[in-house]
Design goal:
The chain contains 5 helices and no strands. With 113 residues, it is mostly helical. The chain is globular, with a radius of gyration of 16 Å. It has a domain of 62 residues. Helix content is 60%, strand content 0%.
């Protein structure tokens, strides 16, 4: 009987990562409010960068699934890289990182403001 390697873990799907997410409109409103109500020069918390990256990823996914060519994937990638920078994380899949972080965050936050 041959011993085989266990299958490689699969990346967290967007459907799983964003299962508890509020609507895209709600998240756009939340991120805009957070940015607008902070005094100029105030550092935004990690939650802002996480939720911003997640909503931009969701928008990009919608465009990609509809086969619409926009800059949304590039914008989502840039936001994901910003979150990784905040976290001191490295890796080759920034948007996958956002999905994993968002899924973990939503497990701790059952309600969203």
């Amino acid at each position: 009987m041959a011993i085989t390697e266990p299958p490689a873990p699969t990346a967290l799907t967007a459907a799983v990562a964003y299962a508890r997410a509020p609507s895209i409109i709600s998240e756009i409103g939340w991120t805009a409010d957070q940015a607008a109500t902070r005094p100029f020069g105030t550092q935004l918390p990690r939650e802002f960068w996480l939720r911003k990256a997640a909503v931009l990823d969701r928008i990009a996914l919608d465009d990609e699934n509809a086969h619409i060519l926009t800059d949304a994937p590039a914008v989502a990638d840039a936001a994901a890289r910003r979150l990784m920078e905040c976290d001191g994380a490295t890796g080759t899949d920034p948007r996958g990182y956002v999905r994993a972080q968002y899924a973990a965050w939503t497990r701790q936050h059952t309600t969203h403001p």
